[in-house]
Amino acid sequence: MRMKAAFLLVPLLGLALTAQQQTPTPAAAPAPPPAAVPSCPELATALVRLVGNDARMRDWPALARYREPNRALTAPAASESRVVFMGDSITDAWPRRVDSFFTGKPYVGRGISGQTTPQMLIRFRPDVVDLKAKVVVILAGTNDIAENTGPMTNEEIQGNLVSMAEIGKTNGIRVVFSSILPVSAYHTAPNSVPQTIQRPMVRIRAINDWMKKYAAAEKHVYLDYFSAMVDATGHLREELSGDDLHPNNAGYAIMGPLADAAVQQAMR
Fold first, then answer.
1. In this structure, what DSSP letter does residue 230 have?
2. Which of 252, 239, 259, 267 shows the shortest CA–CA distance to 93?
3. What sections of the chain are H helices per DSSP?
4. pTM of the predicted model, to two decimals?
5. DSSP for 26-74?
6. pLDDT digits over 158-201, tens only?
7. Domains and CATH numbers, the chain
8. What is the rounded distance in angstroms from the CA atom of residue 156 to the CA atom of residue 188?
């Protein structure tokens, strides 16, 4: 019986193997379509941003921006009272847009577009202290509110401003705190975020109020651009800017005499 069973199993196994070999293999699922390749302009824009971000990360506070100009700048004469303007794009553009404001004065511009207070704090020594300034005019905070380098609370912005003032005071530099300029939404481009959303006026007013009180308490000078440039609606006057953030020549024409007066006050 066992022998007969074995003989019967062998053909059955053969039939099973043959059937298995003849069973068609399920068709493979179709490959997903390739991802859309960006157009040449899109790819070029992405590469430019990538390279720019890489450069910024390698020199986050942009210490290299003024390294050579600082070396080339001669030490101030004994009778010279050098004034350094520390700030962001508003300060950065000032000498280029209205060079007459700096001409013939011991004024040195050290603004960098897009910068926030932590970046300025890092470069405060090479760009202010090491230049033997007698007065520093600080205009900062608007880009912190806009989160250019990440979210920042009002208290963190204030802390960085205090640190700059303390470094200045320790080195015999008189400090002028400039109010953050108002913003508006008169020139918002289609599909763009209004400056009043990126930089809420409630935060600008709050930091300016704190700045004014702190300056009074620490015997610094408070330079009030805000009151001279705000309109009846509480925003930056339409005729003073083309983008609701940066002053045009008319805006700088208002700022110049106010800055001169604040510098003179600081030197008393």
1. B
2. 252
3. 2-22, 40-58, 67-72, 89-97, 117-127, 142-145, 154-170, 195-198, 201-218, 226-229, 249-267
4. 0.81
5. PPPPPPPPPPPPPPHHHHHHHHHHHHHHHHHHHTTT-TTTTHHHHHHSP
6. 999 999 999 999 999 999 999 999 999 999 999 999 999 999 99
7. 81-181+201-225+247-267 (3.40.50.1110)
8. 29
